[in-house]
């Protein structure tokens, strides 16, 4: 059902998500959807969990134990921009949750927690790859850049193509660690 929520969320936005649409897409009863998701925000949370699981699965396949910290940082940064066409829904779901977080405190709390976890992960990689850099501040800067690029790739791919975003990210990370 979470996949159905994610599909409806990405195609129709938060306002378009309904128990009826999710039930029809998932081919389950309305009662089953209501049992799993008592609120619309619960549906958004499930969609974000599904997107996060897919993201981490894809990232896990790309990261190898033989990679240096700089290589892991670059791989993570590129993945966060989600340049693959099949991953556009992950970026769109992130953007929709961000918009919801601006008006809903519970969504904002969850968003901030996820953002802080990612910022911490980036800071750890930055500290290892570029020891002379203020890792915490640089992670905030990098994550802000990545968020902006992911937004542009998702919303205006003719202006900021996935390939351009990837070149920007790789160049930024390489300058950071050198």
From TrEMBL:
Domain of life of the native organism: Bacteria
Domain HTH tetR-type residues, every copy: 1-55
Molecular function GO terms recorded: DNA binding
Transcription recorded as keyword: yes
Biological-process GO terms, alphabetical: regulation of DNA-templated transcription
DNA-binding region location: 18-37
Keywords, ordered alphabetically: DNA-binding, Repressor, Transcription, Transcription regulation
Protein name, per record: TetR family transcriptional regulator
């Amino acid at each position: 059902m979470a996949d159905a929520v994610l599909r409806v969320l990405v195609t129709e936005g938060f306002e378009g998500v309904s128990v009826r649409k999710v039930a029809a897409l998932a081919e389950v009863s309305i009662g089953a959807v209501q049992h799993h998701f008592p609120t619309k925000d619960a549906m958004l949370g499930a969609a974000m969990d599904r997107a996060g699981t897919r993201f981490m699965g894809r990232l896990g396949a790309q990261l190898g134990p033989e990679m240096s910290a700089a290589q892991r940082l670059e791989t993570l940064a590129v993945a966060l921009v989600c340049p693959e066409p099949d991953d556009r829904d992950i970026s769109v779901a992130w953007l929709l949750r961000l918009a919801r977080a601006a008006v809903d405190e519970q969504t904002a709390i969850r968003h901030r927690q996820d953002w802080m976890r990612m910022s911490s992960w980036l800071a750890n990689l930055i500290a290892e790859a570029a020891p002379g850099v203020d890792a915490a501040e640089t992670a905030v800067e990098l994550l802000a850049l990545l968020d902006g690029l992911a937004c542009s790739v998702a919303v205006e791919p003719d202006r900021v193509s996935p390939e351009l975003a990837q070149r920007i990210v790789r160049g930024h990370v390489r300058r950071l660690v050198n």
